[in-house]
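Let's study a protein:

___
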Amino acid sequence: MTVKKSGKILSDIEIAQQAKLQPIGEIAASLNIKEDDLETYGKYKAKLPLSIASEQKHKQDGNLILVTSINPTTAGEGKSTVTVGLGDALNALGKKTVLALREPSLGPTMGIKGGACGGGYAQVVPMEDINLHFTGDLHAITAANNALSAFIDNHIYHGNELNINPKKILWKRALDINDRSLRNSVIGLGGVNDGIPREEHFDITAASEMMALFCLAENLHDLKEKISKIVVAYNIHNEPVTVSDLQVAGALTLLLKDAIKPNLVQTLEHTPAIISGGPFANIAHGCNSLIATKTALKLADYVVTEAGFGADLGAEKFFDIKCQIGNLKPAATVIVATIRALKLHGGVTKDMLHNKNIDALKTGFANLQRHIETIKQFGVPFIVALNKFITDTEEEIIAFQTICEENGIPWALTEVWEKGSPGGIDLAENVIKIVENTDYSVHSFKPVYSFSDSIEDKLLKVVQKVYGGKGIELTSKAKKQLKVIEENGWGNLPICIAKTQYSLSDQPQLLGRPENFTITIREFKPQLGAGFIVALTGDMMTMPGLPKKPAALQMDMDDNGQVTGLF
């Protein structure tokens, strides 16, 4: 993706590399954080102390703004770009604003998307560092995940006092890259000193329970408690075996002692951005760490955050899981839409999205309408941000405006990719109006389900109220697993539905606004550490594969260490 400015076409990374960054101490000072309190990683990155939120617990939280979207195309609709641009625009209007974002995974970075720091003139920087290793947090989470796997196998090798059934080990190894060959494998081959042979599986780190619980922990003590509750396997009596039983919760927490501290960076316009954690929303809960969000809420009047993919995934999990667990009160929601995605949902093939097609736009608008209805059900006021692409025609934008006006839908044309904060002023002004509307109270927020609902009732409420579907169907495997979950008293946990991001249903090819469909739950995974039950639908994989031509093919570095091709 490129931006034309002053007659020259610039890529995202070229724009980022030409930016003049402020020393991270100056960014911290704008938040009244002393430089001595920072743990710096070079000039432009630093970790914040965990104590900020607790030390300022007397201070009123800022206004929490969620950015979500419609069901996207495979290339994404610029949700991160709009998030960054909105934060810059709010700051430009004099509102003290902090971004709270997820950390990119190397999987999609080197796979199909090529980066996750925004784009054009609405980016968080240094983008090449953030996209590639950053401060090492994802590696630490991966290490903790795989250390637990090693402890499990070592326990079995040395006598198996807990009577772990090797065929009922739930815990998987993890890797922060797309690698389909590791989905199903066999370990422990070789001689008698090489472990016990068994089947093994890998998750991508962003889909792991270690990532999920990391992002829902309140502090170090809570992190250790969550790790201790992880159910790693069942024993020969079909009883759950936990990390507490293995007595390694302390060691695993130790591996995460630095990673759990939120990272402070900045946007191209020097808006502070706190980045921490990065679970996917299609196969995990899709939100940055609770610690980062609560820290940001104590430092700013406005906190702009995002949840992965469409409102059917990221927003639902943000509201039903993160907000309920963390006692968060969202003040407003921004729903990102694009002309090209609406045309896709209106029946246009991907290779023809650049052509004008108002009829398809009107048909595809039904997808956006479903997401609007979803947000309304949560009791959170909203505005639609039409993220403008260079292929959009004036006629299509006018058609979109007409539909919104006819249906009383608040919207704002957003051009932050091309213009930075000036392209987001209209959106920011509308967000401020929403937040400052005295008729609205954050106490209007209501999740779709209560934790006390049965698991099947929770699933049915999400399917009907969020997806717009008819009902659910459990496979025989899922029914057996549900029985075990209920017998162990885990039925009062929230649910995290793993579903395709491309459709409201569990069928990726079923675009637009399908109706009367049934969601098939093929498998349940109890994740007591994270504090929820994962429900896998359709063909969702927790370890993605690389495309035929991954984004990595375009990436390189010159002899001076200058990164190229990173979007």
Notes: DSSP finds 20 helices and 27 strands in the chain.
